[in-house]
Amino acid sequence: MTHICLVRHGQTEWNLFGKLQGQTDIPLNETGKLQAEECREFLKKSQWDVLITTSLMRARKTADIINESLELPIVEMDHFKERHFGEGEGLSREEREERYPDFIFPNMESYEELVERVQEGLDDIHAQFPGKKVLLVAHGAVISAVLREFHAEEAILGHVKLFNGCLTNLHMKNKRWAVHSYNEVGHLSEHS
């Protein structure tokens, strides 16, 4: 059975201040680096076959820190890049609510486009690494889409606040992806 553990990247300054990042390339802050180290310490207790990350520096740095102990092959896959939020990127929550109360920003990627590229990425992972245990460092909107599309429980359809450094487990079951657990933070000393 193909198993994917989605790791949300560590915290950035924009996460800390509630700014919408999207595909703007923001680095980890010190808390984010600590969260990545704590992920590493937790994840090294299990066997993994490959580590996949996006090219955005916050994900790549999280993956590099995790891989200091695991020494896995790293594959970059931008199917799992954060959703592009167009004019909304860089705005604080207050600015977003004031300017775009419906959360629809000019030039943003649609939810359907996001789901389509994430599904393509999951299909690629299953094709390239069948039956393997895969670590995938990704982003909040990507993980939220995975929860919405592949979780059997109705309750997940609402918004879930995903913490930086959280873990979400997904596996292939009856030729379909299924969420096993999500937003796990027990390994983190500080979650945000």
Explain what you see.
- This protein has 192 residues and is of the alpha/beta class.
- The chain contains six helices and six strands.
- It has helices at 13-16, 30-43, 57-70, 93-99, 111-128, 140-150; strands at residues 3-8, 50-53, 74-76, 133-138, 167-173, 176-184.
- A six-stranded mixed β-sheet has the order 3-2-4-1-5-6.
- β5 and β6 form a beta hairpin.
- α5 packs across α6.
- The longest helix is centred in the middle third of the chain and has 18 residues, at 111-128.
What are the SSEs and their pairings?
Blueprint: E1 3-8, H1 13-16, H2 30-43, E2 50-53, H3 57-70, E3 74-76, H4 93-99, H5 111-128, E4 133-138, H6 140-150, E5 167-173, E6 176-184
Parallel strand pairs: 1-4, 2-3, 2-4
Antiparallel strand pairs: 1-5, 5-6
Helix pairs in contact: 2-3, 5-6
Features:
single chain, 192 residues, globular, alpha/beta, six-stranded mixed sheet, 6 strands, 35% helix
